[in-house]
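Case study.
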Amino acid sequence: MGKYIIKRILQMLVVVILVAVVTFFLTDMLPSDPVYLIGGDELTTEEYDYIYHQLGLDKPLAERFVIWARNALHGDFGRSYTYHKDVWELISARIPVTLYLSILSLIISVPLGVLFGMITALKRGTKTDSIITLLANVCSCLPQFWIGICLLVVFGLKLRLLPSVGFHWPGEVGIVQHIKELIMPLICLSLGGVASFTRQTRSSMLEVIRQDFVRTAHSKGIKERFVTFRHIMRNGLIPIITILGNRLAYMIGGSMFVENVFSIPGMGTLMVKSVSCSDIPTIQALVLLTTMVSCMAYLLTDILYVIVDPRISLTSDSKK
Amino acid sequence: MNNTSVSNTYDKKLARRERVRKFLRTMFGRKVVIAAAVMLFIFIFIAVFASVLTPYDPNITSPYQAFEAPSSAHWLGCDEFGRDVLTRLFYGARVSLIVGVLAVIIACVIGVFLGLCAAYFGGVVDVIIMRCSEALMSIPRIMVSIALIVIIGSSITDLAIILAIPTIPGYIRMIRGQALSLKNSDYVKAAEMQGANSLYVMLTQILPNAISPIIVMMTQQVGTTILMESGLSYVGIGIKIPIASWGTMISNGKNYLITQPMLAIIPGICVALLVICLNVLGDGVRDAMDPRLRGEA
Amino acid sequence: MSLLLDINNIETCFRTEDRVLKILDGVTIQVKKGEIVGLVGESGSGKSVTMMSSIQLLSNSGKVTSGRVELDENGKNILEYKKNSDDMRKIRGGRIGMIFQEPMTSLNPVMPIGRQIQETIMEHIGLNKEEAKARAIEMMKLVNIPDAEERYDNYAQQFSGGMRQRIMIAMVLAAEPDVLIADEATTALDVTTQAQLLEMIKELSVKTGVAVVLVTHNLGIVARYADRIYVMYSGNVVETADTLTIFKDPQHPYTRGLLNAIPRLTDPEDRVLTPIDGLPPTPLARPTYCPFYERCNYCVPDCAEKPKPQLAEIGQGHFVACHLGRAEKDEKAKEIALKEGRSRPEKHISDEICLNVENVKKSFDIYKGLMQRKVGSFNAIEDISFNVRRGETLGIVGESGCGKTTLARCILRMYKPDGGKIELFGKDIASLGRSEMKPFRSQMSMVFQDPFSSLNPRMTAGDIVGQPLRIQKMTSSRAEYEKRVDELFRTVGMDPNQKDRYPHEFSGGQRQRLGIARALALKPNLLILDEPISALDVSIQAQVINLLEELQSSMGLAYLFIAHDLAVVKHISDRILVMYLGRVMEIADSSELYENPLHPYTKALLSSVPLVDPEKEIGREYIPMKGEVPSVMNRPKGCPFSDRCDHATEKCRSTIPELKDAGNGHMVSCFLYYER
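After joint prediction, the assembly is written out as follows.
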């Protein structure tokens, strides 16, 4: 089991390094000259050379990468072209917001989705099943930001029940206001998650229900709820773990749209801003960081998987 | 001799027709699927004939018509620049469909090619292709697309390419997995024993049998891609503003939510409808292609 | 003896998307206390469904629509209980236990096996957790699972198939049921493991008084182990009697047909198999008259006029569902015998050696770790030597994992052997490269086990059969190609007009014919048949065996016939090679091998095979095989069989015996014979 985890960590490192290399070369793949992006279009030759030198563009590629990577390891991603601030400073204020929202919405959508998925699988073919399945299918087709806008119109602008924009930590505005601000963004972020967990749980459970060992359990004459909980559920939920990491990564990326709707100062807003301004250092840092976060999420789900599914550690044992 | 060959070809045609009929019957077995197909057809029709269907130009502004209420001339009213909303919706359908379909085709072609290469050559080629696609998959999909926008740009074709790239690993993995498992099937072994070379085996034995899950995957990806495109356009880094796309329309409409909420809500309904149609149809294709995948009813 | 389980005239229907299929058409089965009942029939005859219906274990789409099931003659129809009601659960699992065919998937993969046994005990015996665990361990010991205490917490995938079936048996018997249903429980296992398990079930039945229902397609098993037999056909019981009567005096034409279709170990050499023509009717096409009418040799036109025959008693406990009386059938039987009077196709074995294999070995590397480094290797096959003459059939038998398939692939040069010679008409092909190999490809070909996976589902039958011609560019024109394909279709007894159909439109037997036609396309001299009939039903098997024999006679083919069914191998082979853990144990003429087996492994193997003849089974010696089939990865250092052999000496454990002639061309690799 330990071996398996170490293997996964090594694989993850390879991925991160690969992504780091690619993002570093973003600067060189850019269609426009980064010097002009910083200094504006009308630069004198001296000014140009100065910025050119400042950026270290006169050094060979390999050396620049080493310097960049070394700095990045220390959290120094350079200065933002547009905000004229340290990139790390910009990002560190925004990461917690996005992570907080994504994790909260994961916490909401997993139990709900799994619950609905189980209900639909166990009551397959009934009205309850078809209604929930239909809702889940529809919900997974709705654009997140559009749900946000609809909520905004109804609850924020027409009914005026909830604050329509902004995000503040409880320390700044008090817990009640904080929760009020959270409700709509969380609904937006979670709706798709609930839908997708419902669908996945349903199909995974149905897959298990067809298995021979479930028939064995029935043939033993044990109580129906034991068959459901001990035999079907345990096997049916294991595959769900594998999509947890995937979903968290998706939510971190997708938070961009919701942050935009509710003007939340998270990574997403920053990303959009820096893309529109070709703010390379910020983009590099954001891509690298989100990759690392999602890799961590994948790793955690892998570990969880090993703990829950005895088959994994068994196969790695038998290879000894 | 002649007679038998005639009856043979007849038989063949009949059998093929029978198979197609059976496929369509399973695919359109449920009424929802038929409804979705009809809707999708309407969307496509609108997208193709947008310029014929409406007398207005989607981009010419006429300030004195701004925020005009729905009327017989402008069925859905006008937006903040006095452009006809319905006209812009029509042209938006065109953008969404082109991006969605193009992206899926690009991803599928590249993915199937690389996946087959990985399975066919094995060894180093396989390791490189698979490691790269793993790396690509560990970055959140949207981040990949956004980073690519900076490099490639954001025209319609650019967006198709950009949205296609993060989905390529999915195709690679699927086709490679299929190829590797089919490689061990008896009929492939039989062809090898008869002296067939690997390329022949790959193209005549493996590819035709690995293609149906790919088609299912493609139909399901069109919808997701359209959702992504509308999102990117909405936040302002996808389709750029003067071009009519559903995302930009929502984005523009967002500024007038208090007075004209419909400007933002209607294009969203279009996105949702189109994606639902595509997904329902995708499920239909999946059911027809592989009955085993069907959810127990 | 009193009646225990009484299944009375049940009908079961399955609902599919657009139709209702009546799988059981009125089945009556009675089980008495402590007896072993055999339920035989071909696939789709409804034998499993019958047993599952009786304990309400059908999936949601299946439903028993009429009939009664009673326990203890108490007048209570247990089908009236709700599927998951307490009363039903007490019966299902508590009074009637069931074990299934697939040992690999029938146990929960994420729950320790001990817990799964414990669960049953707590449900039905009412012990607390600790007591139940103790009893579970006791049960594991009862079914001979070594180190039961330690293995209590193991998971199913840590056991072999045979062990898992033992665990299933322990689990079922732990609840102290009165009836044990074994639904093809040993079908997926090797002959020796199968015999071990069935002997154990028989012993347990005597010891605990549990009645057993053996559901199987294998007539040998019921002949050896059952007291009474029910024969099923297309959702009906067509005949039932005690085992001796069924085999000595079968009265239903179907039972007779089955017995004429299967080869037996005790057959004389000129025995001809008589297949039952046609296919059983599908539940949708089942007629209102006798369901066997279309395939029956005995039928008279009247049979199609009358309604379905009911079971009628014609002797003590002997029931038959046939309109014809004994006298009518005997009359007809003589007629048939006269008409058929077939003899086996003549063999033309020449002296020319077609294939000569000398000391072939093949090892596989084991890779491990991140970088997939090679950490070791194991020899899948070692020192294999034999030859096959033109027109001869050499049978290769051995249990799963013994290297039969590796050997076949080496000969066909799918693998490159690590050493030794493979001579095809005197030319060594063992180390030829890809292109050098090409001309030899047409001289040999292979027929596969599974007729479903060996045909490309996306190609038409004609394209499949003609594929070798296209690959090897054997035909110069389209017309010539078509002509050859038509010819091949006719050779295997199929209509060339079916060329444009796809594999799924054919039945299993027809697909196997297509596989044979494809193998014959390049006019090979040597055909390697890898379990070519084991996926087929008994009545179809005979058709394919006869076809193979005719082809050999007319084309002078040499066959390498790989199989695990010893009776079939004996029937078709001239000589037989016995393999164990990648080595040759014994080679001899087939009758010689069966009458006078020398190697202790061969002896044990032969005694594991049930004869399809209860009379001969009486007093027949069963040589139990010790332990499990080990893997080639940890083959014993000396003779591979030494750790399971009763005669093994120190020498056997340290040195490998060579394959030597023990006289009469009977080759054996055992010190017992050349140390004399």
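Observations recorded in class. Chain B touches chain A through 41 residues (CB under 8 Å). The two ends of chain B are 50 Å apart (CA to CA). We will return to this complex in the next lecture.
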